[in-house]
Amino acid sequence: MKKISKISLSLLLAAVLVIIAACGNKNTTNNANSGAAESAAPSQDAASAAPSGDSDLASLKGKKVALVMQFNTGTFSAQYVEGVKEQVEKFGGKVQVFASDNDLVKMASNLDAAINQGYDGILLDHGQASALEAGAKKAVAKGIKVISFDSDLNVDGVTMLQQDDQKMADLTLEQLAKDTGGKGNIVKVWVAGFAPMERRQISYKAFQAKYPDIKEVAAFGNANNPQVDTQAQMKAILTKYPKPGQITAVWAAWDEFAKGAARAIQEAGRTDIKVYGIDMSDEDLQMIQDPNSPWIASAATDPKDIGRVQVRTLYKMLKGEQVDKTITLESVYVSRDQLPTDKKINTTELAQYVDGWGSSTQNYEDWMKELEAQN
């Protein structure tokens, strides 16, 4: 009995030691694994504090942008397209231009093509709601971001970009009134059916009421081949009113109209008529600088800036940021007496002489600088 008890005690002791050793090893292993896990993964607080900006910006790279234009006539449109392409490429995207040759049916078809081809964003240039509303709604329903410029499109989910058309008209018309002493005969070159033109017409009607001694002796305008058509029609009006003083000035609601009118007046040798326009391009600026040209002033927004702001607004939407339903672009007044007489300049250099030109930072966010740097 005694011998058996000693053996039993020895076995019991051995078993206890084995259990203690096993528990010690288990705790050591668990502690080691726990430490490794804590080292490999950040805490929940650290993870939530980690910046997500890089991943947000990465998602914006390689975006496909469609620019659907009602017309792409003249140097203003060319510089606007240049601004769009420049900003999209800086953001690492690609842009495709769909020109519609001033055909609204074709523009609607181009919009449908852009939707069906799976573009990430669509920029609309001019156009009318009657032609674009259905397509715009379809694009929004598919999650495509849409921004229109100078159109009357009012669709939920579509942001509208526009120039301050009434201000631009006011600037030129008030200067015309000042230069003529509030009296005289004028010609208006304008065309209906375009949202910016309709807004400019509001200011023109107010101008007529304010200055009853300034008489409109002729009014015309054609958006198809506008420069050549205006030149021909202005030539006919000058034949009808051949004497100095019969026409005091021309107010042109578009730079393409101003170019045509100015060329007709200059060819006729009429130095008694001044031209006031709206919009500005390199070609326009050269004409305004020419001391022999009747075109002496224009109110405008830098066309490249228009394109840049439209693209920036699109990328804000692509990033999920809120933007205003309507965005109004800033404009300036440019007259010959502001410009150098010893050299010709282009619109890139215009900022040296006209405050506010070509320096718009509208909708230019800090993260966009980073996105540009990455590309």
Automatic annotation (TrEMBL):
Superkingdom of source: Bacteria
Ranges where the Periplasmic binding protein domain occurs: 65-322
CDD domains cross-referenced by the UniProt entry: PBP1_methylthioribose_binding-like
Keywords from the UniProt entry: Signal
GO terms of molecular function: carbohydrate binding
Signal peptide feature range: 1-21
Region (Disordered): 32-52
Keyword Transmembrane: no
Family: Belongs to the bacterial solute-binding protein 2 family.
Protein name in UniProt: Sugar ABC transporter substrate-binding protein
